[in-house]
Amino acid sequence: MTWFFLVVAGLFEIGWAIGLKYTEGFTRFWPTAGTIGAMVVSVALLGLAMRTLPVGTAYAVWTGIGAVGTVVLGMLLFNEPATFGRLACVGLILAGIVGLKLTT
């Protein structure tokens, strides 16, 4: 269950990172409310995961999921460049997440 909490926390991190773009500097109420809600859920679930996982592993996986998801959605939603270098770096982050899971 701990890893489930951590993955869901990472998904909510993606949500709030993307949500920041839609808040337009926190000037739009509903996107801001959704972003803040996603932040709270993300950090709460991270806290639950850290009850049993090492802090370094939990934090690295959480931020890794958030980073990969945010980069991919940035490419899909905001037409950010999908260059070989960016995709290779995302692959390295994914490799790190899998490595941490396998060694924890």
TrEMBL record:
Which InterPro entries does the entry link to? EmrE-like (IPR037185), Small_drug/metabolite_transptr (IPR000390), Small_multidrug_res (IPR045324)
Q: Which residues cross the membrane?
A: 29-50, 57-78, 84-103
Q: Name one Pfam family in it.
A: Multi_Drug_Res
Q: Which UniProt keywords apply?
A: Cell membrane, Membrane, Transmembrane, Transmembrane helix, Transport
Q: Which residues form a coiled coil?
A: none
GO cellular component terms, semicolon-separated: plasma membrane
What's a GO biological-process term for it? Answer: xenobiotic detoxification by transmembrane export across the plasma membrane
Q: Which Gene Ontology molecular function entries are recorded, alphabetically?
A: transmembrane transporter activity
Q: Where in the cell is it found?
A: Cell membrane
What membrane topology was assigned to this protein in its record? Multi-pass membrane protein
Does the record's keyword annotation contain Magnesium? no
Stored NCBIfam families: PRK11431.1 (NF008512)
| Family note | Belongs to the drug/metabolite transporter (DMT) superfamily. Small multidrug resistance (SMR) (TC 2.A.7.1) family. Gdx/SugE subfamily.
Q: What is this protein called?
A: Guanidinium exporter
The major lineage groups are: Bacteria, Pseudomonadati, Pseudomonadota, Betaproteobacteria, Burkholderiales
- Gene expressing this chain: sugE
